[in-house]
Amino acid sequence: MIAIGLMSGTSLDGIDAALLKIEPRGSSYAFELLNFATVPFEPDLADRLREALPPNEPGVQMLAQLHRRLGNAFARAARSVAGALNVDYVASHGQTIRHDGPAHTSIQIGDAFLIREAMNATVCYDFRSADCAVGGHGAPLVPYIDALLFSDSLEDRIALNIGGIANLTALPAGGEVHDVMAFDIGPGNMLIDAFVRERTKHRHGWDPDGAFASAGRVDEAVLRAMESDPYFSKSSPKSTGREHFGSQFLRGHDRLLAGLSLEDGCATLCELTAATIADAVEEVKLKTARILCSGGGVKNLHLMERLAARLPEARVESTDAYGVPADAKEAIAFAILGYETLRERAANVPRVTGASRAVPLGAIAPVRLAALLGEIERQCRSL
After folding, report:
1. CA–CA gap between residue 326 and residue 370 (Å, rounded)
2. Where do runs of H (alpha helix) occur along 35-111?
3. Which of 207, 214, 276, 331 could form a disulfide with 7 if both were Cys (CB 3.0 to 4.6 A apart)?
4. Residues 342 and 310: beta-carbon distance below 8 Å
5. In angstroms, rounded to a whole number, what is the distance separating the alpha carbons of residues 263 and 33?
6. Does position 54 have pLDDT exceeding 90, yes or no?
C-alpha cells in the first residue's frame, strides 16, 4: 500500500509530506519511508494564517478562503513527494485553526476534496472530530502511533515531540497500546519563535540551531513567573495550543521580558520548554527512560543540551535511530492513522484524550473505495 501523510503543526513552518510503503504487521505496521519533504508555505499564506489564528478572530469569509488555499497547498505538497508513483490513499491532518479540548472542539482546515482531485486517490481527514464527539479533547492523537512504533517489552521509553507545542507519550516496558499516558506539556518552539520574530522585526522566524539562546543567560525571575502558569499544574487529560501559548502569552509577560536582550529572552524561553518537559517526565515517573525526540525542536541544539542536563538519568536521543526521521514522524503517524481509519479500527486512547470510549477516527473522501478496502482486507487477512 502506497500512502501519503500530510501534517501542518502549530509552528507554521510548512507542510510535512511523507510518502510511505505501508503494510500491517500483527497489531502494528511495517513501513518504508520512500520520500519526505517539508514544503514551506507561500509567505502570503503564512501571514494570512497567522492573522486567522488565536488570539485573532477571523471572519467566515477569511476561513473559507484559507480552507481552499490550504487544500491546494496540501495537494501540491502531496504531488511533490509522490512523483510518478500511484498513491493508494492520502491522510491529511490539516491545519488546526481552533482548539479547545475541555469544550470538545477542534477544527482543522485544508479542503480534503482538493487533495482528492489532485491525487485521484482516497483522502482520510478530520481525525479529531470523532474523539471530540465521545467527550474527548480530540488531542493528542499521535500517542496511539507512538505505542505501535516505539513500545518495548523490556525498556521504559518516552516519545517526546517538540513542535510548536511539546507533548509526550509515556511507554512503560511491556505496556499495552490503550494503557499509555500522554498529554500536551506546554510550549515547545512556539514562544521562542514568536519572541524571535518580534525582536528581529521578522528578519528571523526562529532561533537557528539555538544559537541565540546559547549566547544568552536565563532570567530566573522571568522563568519562575512563566512556570507558574496554571496550565502546567493541570492533571491530564489535557491539551493546549496557540489559544493559550500564542503571542498573547508573551504579551502577558511584557513587563518582565522588556528588559531582556534577544539572547537572554531566547535562553529563558528555551529553559521554560526544557524545565516543563523535565517536570512532565517526573510526573510520569519514567526518569530513567529512553527519550525518543522528534519535531523541529530536535534542531535546537541548545534545547537538546538543556534537556539532557535536566534529565541526567534518562537517555535523550532522536527517533532517527529507530527508523523514524524526527522531522517526518508526525506525517508518518497520520499516514498510519489513515490506514486505521480505512480498517475502521479505533485509534484514539481514551485515557489520553478523556473520551468515553475508543472509536475509529477520520472522515473519508473516496476514490475507488471498494477496491481500496478490498486490498486492505486482503493484506490484513494475510497476517
Report:
1. 34
2. 43-52, 60-82
3. 331
4. no
5. 37
6. no
Euclidean distance between CA atoms 187 and 267, whole angstroms? 14
As given in the structure block, the three cell numbers for residue 9 are 503543526
Query: Above 90 in pLDDT, residue 83?
Result: yes
d(CA 339, CA 29): 10
DSSP per position, 212-243: HHHTS---HHHHHHHHT-GGGGPPSS----HH
Q: Please tell me the distance from the alpha carbon of residue 46 to that of residue 38, in angstroms, as a whole number.
A: 14
Q: What is the C-alpha separation between 326 and 165, in angstroms, rounded? A: 15
Type of residue numbered 170: A
Res. 377 pLDDT band, cuts 50 70 90: very high
Indicate left, alpha or beta for 137 from its phi (over 0: left) and psi (-120 to 50: alpha).
Answer: alpha
Q: Decide: 118 and 127 in contact? Cβ < 8 Å.
A: no
Which residue type occupies 233? S
Q: Is 169 helix (H, G, I), strand (E, B) or coil?
A: strand
Q: Give 255's contacts (C-beta < 8 A, 6+ positions apart).
A: none
Question: 262-283 and 190-199 are packed helices; what angle lies between their axes, rounded to 10 degrees?
Answer: 170
Cell numbers found for residue 166: 511539546
In angstroms, the CA 236 to CA 309 distance is 26
User: Would you state the cell numbers that stand for residue 311, as one nine-digit string?
Assistant: 534529565
Separation of alpha carbons 206 and 198, rounded Å: 10
Query: In angstroms, rounded to a whole number, what is the distance separating the alpha carbons of residues 279 and 20?
Result: 35
How many Å apart are CA 332 and CA 164, to the nearest integer? 18
Q: Could you give the CA distance from residue 322 to residue 46 in angstroms, rounded to a whole number?
A: 32
Taking the C-alpha atoms of residue 367 and residue 333, their distance in angstroms, rounded to an integer, is 22
**N- to C-terminal Cα distance for the chain?**
15
Note the pTM of the prediction, 2 decimals. 0.94
CA nearest neighbour of 273 among 313, 318, 226: 226
CB 141 within 8 Å of CB 311: no
Are 4 and 82 within 8 A, CB to CB? Answer: yes
Rounded to 5 degrees, what are φ and ψ at 106?
-155, 120
